[in-house]
């Protein structure tokens, strides 16, 4: 499935407090909330996205979510669209992976009603526990 967003019509943002490195400085903890503008791209362009995920990139590939931002949101058109899972190129915006909350909606709803009895529901049948 191809998932693309026309960057002229849809802006996505990812905020975060994560630890990052800017302009060859050593990684430091953020003293304020930062954000990056990202655009959802075809999952093939990302190279490492799995089923039920989105890949988003910064146009210049010079900024993006960093270590410690995992679990944060990707907001498009004012709505939560994804949950940051990680990137092979932290802080560069060169292919950040997000859980697709639209595709994960049924699993999210199952967690909301889960009462703690038995095993926690997994998002995919082939999901595995560490």
Automatic annotation (TrEMBL):
<dbReference type="InterPro" id="IPR043504">
    <property type="entry name" value="Peptidase_S1_PA_chymotrypsin"/>
</dbReference>
<dbReference type="InterPro" id="IPR001254">
    <property type="entry name" value="Trypsin_dom"/>
</dbReference>
<dbReference type="GO" id="GO:0004252">
    <property type="term" value="F:serine-type endopeptidase activity"/>
</dbReference>
<dbReference type="Pfam" id="PF00089">
    <property type="entry name" value="Trypsin"/>
</dbReference>
<keyword id="KW-1015">Disulfide bond</keyword>
<protein>
    <recommendedName>
        <fullName>Peptidase S1 domain-containing protein</fullName>
    </recommendedName>
</protein>
<dbReference type="InterPro" id="IPR009003">
    <property type="entry name" value="Peptidase_S1_PA"/>
</dbReference>
<dbReference type="GO" id="GO:0006508">
    <property type="term" value="P:proteolysis"/>
</dbReference>
<feature type="domain" description="Peptidase S1">
    <location>
        <begin position="1"/>
        <end position="113"/>
    </location>
</feature>
């Amino acid at each position: 499935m191809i998932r693309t967003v026309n960057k002229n019509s849809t802006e996505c943002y990812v905020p975060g407090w994560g630890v990052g490195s800017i302009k060859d400085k050593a990684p430091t903890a953020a003293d304020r909330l930062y954000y990056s503008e990202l655009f959802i791209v075809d999952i093939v362009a990302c190279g490492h996205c799995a089923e039920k995920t989105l890949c988003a990139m910064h146009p210049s590939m010079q900024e993006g979510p960093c270590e410690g931002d995992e679990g944060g949101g990707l907001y498009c058109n004012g709505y939560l669209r994804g949950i940051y899972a990680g990137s092979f190129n932290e802080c560069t915006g060169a292919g950040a992976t997000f859980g697709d909350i639209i595709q994960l909606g049924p699993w999210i709803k199952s967690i909301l009603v889960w009462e703690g009895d038995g095993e926690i529901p997994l998002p995919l049948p082939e999901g595995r526990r560490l």
